[in-house]
Amino acid sequence: MNKEESMLQKRLVELSRLAYNRGIVVFSDFLNLNELNILHTTPKDMFLSQYKTYGGYDLSERQMAVFLPDALYYEYEYPIQTIEVSPLNKKFSEDLTHRDYLGALMNLGIERCKIGDIIAEDHKALIFVKEEMAEYVTDNLTQIRHTHVKATIGTGVQVDYEPRYEELKGTVSSIRLDSVLALAYPLSRSKITSQIEAGKVFVNGKLITSNGYRLKENDIISVRKMGRIAYNGILSETKKGRYMISVRKYI
C-alpha cells in the first residue's frame, strides 16, 4: 500500500471512529474502484462502526461509504443528488460522451470525489453528485464542448435501475475471469492478462489480479477505462466440454 492509499485508509478509519464516538451517521465522498477496494480489504477490526456503500443505484460503480453508529434505529438517506443534462437544441447537439460530461464538470472546478457515476444515453446524461454540489452544477453547467445544455435536478432513479447494455453470447473453455473478458472485449488473451495483472480489473468492487479467478453468476466485472460487464451464467454445455455463456456489456 503506497502513501496515498495509506492516507485514504486512515481517513476512512477516522470517519468510522467519528460515527462511533459521536453516535452519528457519517458519509465519505464518492470512492472510485481502487478506493472501494481499499475500504473492502481493510481488516474489519480497524473500523469502530459498521459501514455500507451506495452510489445512487444498485449497479453504481462510484459509491459513497456510510459509517453507522451501533445504536442506529432510524432511516437515513445518502446525500446524493441526480442532475439531468440535456441539449437546449437537440438538432444541433453533438454526440457527447462520458468524458465530455466529466471534463465539463472538472472545468467548473469540481473535485472528482464529489461526482459519482455519469450515465450518457440518447443525447442526455444522468449525473450523480454530492448533494452540496447540485445547485452549483445546475447554475453553472451551461455548455459542453460546443453544445449548449440545461442541467436540472432530477427525481433520481430506482435502485434497480440498469444502464443500457448489449447481450453477448459465446463459448468459453472455463468460467475464468480472463475467458469471460475475452468474450466481452476484442483483445488478445495476453492483453487481457496484462490488464488483470496491472490491477485494472475489479469483481463486485474488489480488485482481482488472478486471471484464473472463477466467476459466479451475476458477478459485475469492471475494467478501468473500458467499462463494465455482468456475467449472466452458463446457458448450456457443448459436447466438447465447453460452456455457452451470456454476459451483459454496458454501453
From TrEMBL:
SMART domains in the record: S4
Which InterPro entries has this protein been placed in?
A: Nucleotide-bd_a/b_plait_sf, RqcP2_RBD, S4_RNA-bd, S4_RNA-bd_sf
The family database entries (PROSITE patterns) matched by this protein are listed as: S4
Task: Tell me which domain of life the UniProt entry assigns to the organism this sequence originates from.
Answer: Bacteria
Q: CDD domains, per this entry?
A: S4
Residue ranges of every copy of the RNA-binding S4 domain listed in the record: 175-234
Report keywords, A-Z: RNA-binding
Q: Which Pfam families match?
A: S4, YlmH_RBD
Among SUPFAM superfamilies, the record links this protein to:
Alpha-L RNA-binding motif (SSF55174)
What is this protein's name?
Answer: RNA-binding protein
Q: Which species?
A: Dorea amylophila
Mind giving the lineage of the organism this protein is from?
Bacteria, Bacillati, Bacillota, Clostridia, Lachnospirales
